[in-house]
Amino acid sequence: MKRVLLLPLLLLSMLVSAQQGANDILFTTKGEIIQGKVTKVTANTISFSYPGETLVNEIETTNLEKIVFSSGRTQNFGGKKTASATTSGVPVQTTPKDTVMVQTTIPKEEIYLGPDAKAIDNNVLALVPMSYYEDGTYSREVSRQLSQFATEYLSTQNQSLPIEVQSLDATIEKLMKAKVSFQKLNETSVEELQRVLGAGYLITMEVKTTQTAETKKEGGFFGESQTETDNSGSKRFDMELVLYGKSGTETYSTKFSDERSHADGKAMAGKTSWKKCAQYVLDQVLNLDSL
Fold first, then answer.
1. Measured between alpha carbons, how far is residue 188 from residues 72, 177, 196 in Å?
2. Using DSSP, how many helices (H) and how many strands (E) does the chain show?
3. Would you say the C-alpha torsion 14, 15, 16, 21 has a positive or negative sign?
4. Angle, CA 221 vertex, CA 215 and CA 224 arms, to 5°
5. Residue 16 pLDDT more than 60?
6. Are residues 71 and 139 in the same domain?
7. 119-129 as b/e, with b when 16 or more CB fall inside 10 Å?
8. Rounded mean pLDDT of the chain?
9. FRET pair for 279, CA 20 to 30 Å: which of 2, 38, 72, 170?
10. Residue 13 DSSP code
C-alpha cells in the first residue's frame, strides 16, 4: 500500500523538479518520463540532452506521446501508450495488414536551438544584422559596415550602463548555428531571436538613402553653348531603430530623417556619410533609463 502511494508522489516530485530546473519533459508511449533539454525537433526524431550533460541523444517521434517544454508549451505527437506485452499470457493483437495507417503531421519546431543553447541573459544586448539601402538597392557591404559600427559604438559608449553588448561575430555565429540566414531574419520572431542569441535586449535598425542627382541646363543665344549646373540635388537619410526588451516587447523606437544639400553630400565621403546619423540615433538608446 505504501508503494502505491509513493509512486504518484515520486512522479509529482519529478515534474516539479523538472519545472524548477527549466528542463523539458518527454512522455514516451511506454509510460516513461524523461527529463532533459530538447535541442531539435524533426518529423521523425527528437534530439535531447540529459541535465548536466552535453551528449545529444535521439528518440523517434513514434515512441513519444508528447513533450512538455520548460516554457509551458505542450507538443503532442499522437502516440498512444502501449499495453503490456501480454495480458494473462495472451499476446496483444497486432494491426491487420489491410488496415490503413494515418500518419500524424508533426508540427515543426520554430527554430533549431543547437545543443548549447543558453538561457536568456537580461544583461546582454545584441544588435541584429542591419540593412542599408542605397536608392532602393540593398548593399551587403555597407550593411556589414553599419552593423559593425553600431555594435562597436554601443560597446565603447555604454560604460556607465550595466549592459554587455554582444560582439557582432558572436551574434552571427549563433545565428548560423541556429540556421537563421539573413533571408530568415524577418520570418523569425523577436522572442525566438532572443533565445538563439541569449540576449534580453535586441536592437534592429534599417537605413535608407535617396540621392537626388544634380541637373544641367543648356541655353545661350546666337549659337553660343552655355551649360548651367543646378545644385539643388540632395541626399536623404531615413533611419529606423527599434529596441526590444523582455518577452520580445518593443520598449523603444525612433525614426530619424536627415537631408543634406548636394554640396554637403559630396563633402561627407559618400558611403560613410551615414555614420553621423547612426551615432545620433544610437545615442538616444544610451540615454534611456530602461537599460
1. 20, 14, 10
2. 6, 17
3. positive
4. 75
5. no
6. no
7. ebbeebbbbbb
8. 75
9. 170
10. H
Residue 45 burial (10 A CB sphere; 0-12, 13-18, 19+) = middle
Q: pLDDT of 118-156, one tens digit each?
A: 578 888 999 999 999 988 899 999 999 999 999 999 988
Collect contacts of 159-162 with beta carbons under 8 A, ≥24 apart: 161/286, 161/291, 162/123
- Contact indicator for 150, 274 with CB cutoff of 8 Å: no
Name the nearest CA neighbour of 117 among 150, 181, 69, 62: 69
**Is residue 11 scored above 90 in pLDDT?**
no
**Which pTM does this prediction carry?**
0.53
Say if 262 falls within a structural domain: yes
Q: Which three cell numbers, joined as nine digits, stand for 288?
A: 534611456
Asked whether residue 91 is assigned to any structural domain, the reply reads no
CATH number at residue 257: 3.40.50.10610
Question: What one-character DSSP code corresponds to residue 60?
Answer: E
User: Are 104 and 132 in a shared domain?
Assistant: no
SS3 state of residue 73: coil
Total of domains in the chain? 2
